[in-house]
Design goal:
The chain is of the alpha+beta class. It is 50% helix and 20% strand. It has four domains: 2-148; 166-215, SH3 type barrels (Roll), CATH 2.30.30; 223-314, Alpha-Beta Plaits, CATH 3.30.70.100; 318-458, Sandwich (Jelly Rolls), CATH 2.60.120.10. The protein has a five-stranded antiparallel β-sheet with strand order 4-3-2-1-5.
């Protein structure tokens, strides 16, 4: 019988070794499988140990064999630790399924309590130590350790509060105590963030629990974006606000609800501050949209004859010439050539909602937007899809210049606009003199063709109604 017991004890130890190897080396992709294998091994370990005479609820009785007595005592203690480990894994599996990654901290705290209970149980049942005295002594030690680790314990319990209330989660962009970054991890002591500068910021949980937290990722489909513009005080605010309203209409990435707005924030001694704000759907596009808004604001203010310098004046007679400096396709022309071209430009006013260039139309001139916003739409089979919006210094009708090709889009004004027209033959003459003009027109046409394709691809597929509701609508 002693030989059988020794073999059973050896088999129990072998199961512990197998569990350790499988947990660290086995290629289990799913955590459920790993925990399930560990649970099965624990049940086998318990069954073999009990058959070998190892009862975790009492001290082993192998008085005749000291080696077996020592082995059984060790396995009895290991049973309690093994049980604590399996229970911790099961609790962690439940927490991860219910509250996700933020359950790690709570799992660690619960795991520590479970292991503490297992150690006390092993000391009382297997080693038959006086648990009451041990608990009393450990209580005094716990008070001393608690006072010594007061700040650390504050971080731990603050971390539990943060994981329970969830003001932020992993992968959220947040601002804590003036530090902005992406949350990488929330452990028992601190919150780790990746800042926009590429550095790692570690904020203690106790500081985060007391600080003002701004979560930039919530709600997840609506994120604010704003820019600040300063304009001299002598310019009438209504003129500035009208130009900034056209700036907002010129960006198709801003959500229509809530509606974007432009407001006069503050009037100083010499300069007034205006704020343009709106909302976008993707947080990752925030910097790109802000840059676009700054560029649009500059162009629309300049198109309205508004200078942002105290001593700057934009004369109406030079607007056509100034506009040519901003048109990319004419950047290769000399100053004299631009002066001559500006004299041949003819201005035409459009009200909001007018069609400037229709689909399949072949214009006789190149059109340059001086003020306002124009929307370009392309046919999609069932209607029209907006491919983009255009503002001051952008051109239309380049296909007609290159080869008398009809327009593939419909260009409609969203606001009142002033558009300059340049005769087609004059533009072609500059193309013959300057190869760069033709290259710029071809590049512009290629970019717009690609944008049209992307707009059609990005358009969501229509939802087809079916079933009982569709049958009712046909009746």
């Amino acid at each position: 019988m002693s030989l059988i017991y020794n073999h059973l004890l050896s088999l129990s130890a072998l199961l512990l070794l197998i569990d350790t190897v499988l947990w660290h080396l086995a290629p289990f992709k799913h955590r459920v499988t790993r925990v399930g294998v560990r649970l099965v091994l624990f049940v086998l370990f318990s069954a073999i140990g009990i058959n070998a005479g190892v009862n975790p609820l009492q001290a082993p009785l192998f008085a005749d064999d000291r080696v077996a007595q020592l082995g059984a005592t060790a396995l009895g203690i290991l049973w309690w630790l093994y049980a604590a480990r399996v229970l911790t894994e099961l609790i962690g599996l439940v927490l991860m399924r219910r509250i996700g990654h933020s359950g790690r901290l709570l799992q660690d705290v619960i795991g520590a309590l479970v292991f503490l209970a297992a150690i006390v149980a092993a000391a009382g049942y297997v080693l038959e130590l006086p648990v009451k005295g041990l608990l009393a002594t450990s209580g005094v030690v716990a008070i001393v350790v608690g006072l010594a680790l007061q700040s650390t314990l504050s971080d731990v319990f603050s971390g539990i509060v943060l994981n329970t209330t969830k003001p932020y989660q992993v992968d959220d962009w947040i601002v804590i105590d003036g530090v902005e970054g992406k949350v990488l991890d929330i452990d028992w002591r601190a919150t780790h963030m990746l800042t926009s500068a590429g550095t790692t910021a570690v904020v203690p949980n106790s500081v985060a629990a007391k600080a003002k937290i701004v979560n930039l990722s919530r709600p997840n489909n609506m994120h604010g974006v704003s820019i600040s513009i300063q304009v001299p005080n002598h310019i009438r605010p209504r003129r500035v606000l009208d130009a900034l309203e056209r700036t907002l209409q010129g960006s198709s990435r801003l959500l229509s609800n809530p509606a974007p707005k432009a407001v006069l924030k503050e009037a100083g001694e010499s300069m007034s501050e205006y704020v343009v704000s709106g909302f976008i759907a993707e947080l990752g596009k925030k910097s790109e949209v802000r840059n676009q808004l700054f560029d649009l604001a500059h162009r629309h203010l300049e198109a309205a004859g508004i200078s942002r310098r105290l001593d700057g004046v934009i004369e109406p007679t030079t607007r056509a010439r100034t506009l040519l400096d901003e048109v990319k396709i004419f950047r290769s022309l000399s100053d004299d050539e631009r002066d001559q071209l500006a004299q041949s430009m003819v201005a035409q006013q459009y009200a909001a909602g007018q069609v400037v260039l229709g689909l399949e139309e072949v214009p006789e001139s190149l059109m340059v937007i001086a003020t306002g916003v124009v929307s370009a739409t392309v046919p999609d089979g069932a209607g029209h899809t907006e491919a983009g919006r255009m503002g001051p210094s952008e051109v239309m009708g380049e296909q007609s210049i290159l080869g008398d090709t009809p327009s593939e889009a419909t260009f409609t004004t969203l606001t009142s606009c002033i558009i300059y027209r340049i005769d087609k033959t004059l533009v072609r003459s500059y193309m013959e003199q300057r190869v760069e003009v033709g290259r710029a027109l071809n590049k512009l046409q290629a970019v717009r063709t690609q944008n049209s394709r992307m707009a059609l691809i990005a358009k969501p597929a229509p939802i087809k109604k079916g079933g009982f509701l569709s049958w009712m609508q046909k009746r």
